[in-house]
Amino acid sequence: EGVIYFKEKPSKSNQNNAKCQLQIRLARVCSSTVRETGQDVRVGNVTAALAVANIVKTSLGPVGLDKMLVDDIGDVLITNDGATILKSLEVEHPAARVLVDLAKLQDQEVGDGTTSVVIIASELLRRGNDLVKNGIHPTTIISGYRMALKAAVSYIKKEMVVNVSELGDDHLINAAKTSMSSKIIGKETDFFSRLAVDAVKSVKMNATAADVAGYDAMGSGGGGGAERLAESASATAAGGTTAGGTKQRYKYPLSAIHILKAHGKSSMESNLIDGGFAINAMRAAQGMPTFVEMSMDGTPVKIAMLDMNLQRHRMGMGVQVIVKDPAEIENIKRREMDITKERIRKIIDAGARVVLTTKGVDDLCMKYFVEAGIICARRCNREDLKRLAKATGGRVVTTMADMEGNETFDAECLGGCDSVREVRIGDGEMLYVYGCRGHGASTIVLRGANEYMLDEMDRALHDSLCVVKRMLESNTLVPGGGAAEAALSVYLDDYATTIETREQMVIQEYADALLVIPKTLAVNAAKDASELVARLRSVHAKGQHSEDMVDYGFKFMGLDLIEGTIRDNLAAGVVEPAISKIKSLRFATEVPTMRR
User: Fold this and answer.
1) Which InterPro entries does the entry link to (predicted)?
2) I want to staple 103 with a disulfide (CB 3.0 to 4.6 A). Which of 20, 114, 249, 407 is the partner?
3) Which helix or strand (DSSP H or E) is residue 227 part of?
4) Is 444 helix (H, G, I), strand (E, B) or coil?
5) Between β-strands 352-357 and 375-377, what pairing exists: parallel, antiparallel or unpaired?
6) 575-577 β-sheet, strand order
7) Exposed / middle / buried, residue 132 (Cβ in 10 Å: 0-12, 13-18, 19+)
């Protein structure tokens, strides 16, 4: 619709002319607008989704390939992480953007499984489009997919999930190895998996009631395989309760783990500073000590963390001082120096032996710090200081002004630690803080040949840390290597035969779509995908249909991509968090079932 305003009441002929002009303009706009509906739009959406999935499909699995991405200015990014690959692409198609957002969501919620969720979602879209071509209404397809998802999640929780109230390090290390097997550090999984497990365990904290409710909501129930794992790991029976009541649950905040990258040496010389913190900064002056330690009476080293300038005080903008005697100018300069000295003195009197600031420190302030034997570092990263404040039990100070207009420094803002030492790493120096007195904190110092390798190591280690965190918080795991997808495919095929409505065909297509994961794993490993998947389905069908307890462990059978055979992946240590598998299915099913 359009509205035409007149300055004065128009005549009837003028009104008619104006309406005619408006109708002509609207006709021109409508003729220039192209609207696509029906099958053409569906085909375009599916084609765009498949194009995105094909980009990351070859990077799936322990023998997946890395991608080299080059942007407009020539910067190179080498990665195997699905979320990173998709985030770096300039995707404009709205359906393809949904898959990019899907991978981003999986990375935020779980931290791993981003490639799998994109591949499953695109396969569901493709099969849904084929069903529409065969005359199945989209509403029926949406309903069938949701029924299949509900049945699949229920089966995972009841049959596939292995519950353990106290997970041993072996299972955590196996999960970390599975996560990083396809990354650049896949050859050194023994070293880095232990590094990841130790780092996550070092930041253990008591979980609140809200945290525990969140763990339960994420699907940590069920567990048909608890007895089997209890025998192999000598663990407590599933459920997480004792005779006296509910056990204390814990949380593991990854924000407390600081990952620092330093050029030089090999990746195997990366190390974990347990209970410590490393910050990429150095002493502001050579006259400062290289290390400070706690005193003989056990007083910890106090650290002041500032987000303000430590420079000579200057008059504010627009302030004018009129003097009649030139000697007063010297008094003004002296007073400016005294104000700076008083600030430094208040920080020192509060007990600080290490001063870190995000801003600058001039020579005058450094002179006072050198005389007091204090380590001072400038231009520190603000996020690093926030982490350090949490680790040492201090606070970042942004101003020394109090409510009365005076300047004071509260000693409670100081963090505490056992010692601070300047250590030479690669071409520069870093400050190592040992024995932090606040909440749990750890630092992983990664070493590598170049920036590309360090960045990819950082991403791979982040995924492994997320996997270990999820397993510790939910105490659940499922076998990997295509075992869960093959078991679900067989189960959903049987479940579809119990459905008497049109959704039966949709559920069968959903079951076949899940096989895209083992098929892709086998293809990337240069194995015969058709034969391996057929053998895998046969074994799972035998395990699900047999009442013999000898066949009980068949539901844990998955692919061995090195030997090109099938094996018990739970016994082989190829495991992943149950929440990762459940979230992947839910997110992947959400894409084709959105009503657009």
Assistant:
1) Chaperone_TCP-1, Chaperonin_TCP-1_CS, Cpn60/GroEL/TCP-1, GroEL-like_apical_dom_sf, GROEL-like_equatorial_sf, TCP-1-like_intermed_sf
2) 114
3) helix 226-233
4) strand
5) parallel
6) 162-163, 476-479, 575-577
7) middle
User: What per-residue confidence (pLDDT) applies to 21?
Assistant: 62
b/e sequence 178-196, b meaning 16+ C-beta within 10 Å: bbbbbbbbbebbeebbbbb
In single-letter form, the type of residue at position 145 comes to: Y
pLDDT, tens digit (0-9, with 9 covering 90-100), for 498-536: 988 888 999 999 999 999 999 999 999 988 899 999 999
Tell me the two tokens of residue 186: 């896949």
Per-residue b or e along 334-350, where b marks 16 or more CB atoms closer than 10 Å to that residue's CB = eeeeeebbebbeebbeb
Structure confidence by residue, pLDDT tens digits, 350-374: 888 999 999 888 888 888 889 888 9
- Residue whose C-alpha is closest to residue 497's, from 186, 151, 158: 151
Place of tokens 């110092």: 445
End-to-end CA distance of the chain: 26
Residue 218 φ/ψ region, left for φ over 0, alpha for ψ in the -120 to 50 degree band, beta for the rest: alpha
pTM: 0.78
Condensed to tens digits (0 to 9), the pLDDT of residues 427-454 reads: 788 888 888 877 767 888 898 888 888 8
Region of 135 (left: φ > 0; alpha: ψ -120 to 50; beta: rest) is left
Angle at which helix 169-180 crosses helix 189-201, to 10 degrees, equals: 120
Instruction: Give the span between the Cα atoms of 81 and 191, in whole angstroms.
Output: 20
| Rounded distance between C-alpha atoms, residue 60 and residue 581, angstroms | 15
C-beta of residue 153 within 8 angstroms of C-beta of residue 585: yes
Q: Which two tokens stand for residue 324?
A: 């009649």
In sequence order, which residues have a C-beta less than 8 Å from that of residue 531 and are 6 or more positions away? Answer: none
Pairwise CA distance, residues 437 & 416, whole Å: 5
The radius of gyration of the chain from alpha carbons, rounded to an integer in Å, stands at: 31
Query: How many angstroms separate the CA atoms of 436 and 416, rounded?
Result: 6
> How many residues are recorded in the chain?
596
Read off the tokens for 384: 């690093």
Alpha helices for 373-410 (secondary structure H)? 382-392
Owner of token pair 């990746």: 267
Are 518 and 484 a contacting pair, CB within 8 Å?
A: no
- The percentage of the chain sitting over the pLDDT mark of 70, rounded to a whole number, equals 84
Query: How does DSSP classify residue 404?
Result: T
The tokens describing 62, both together, are 């322990």
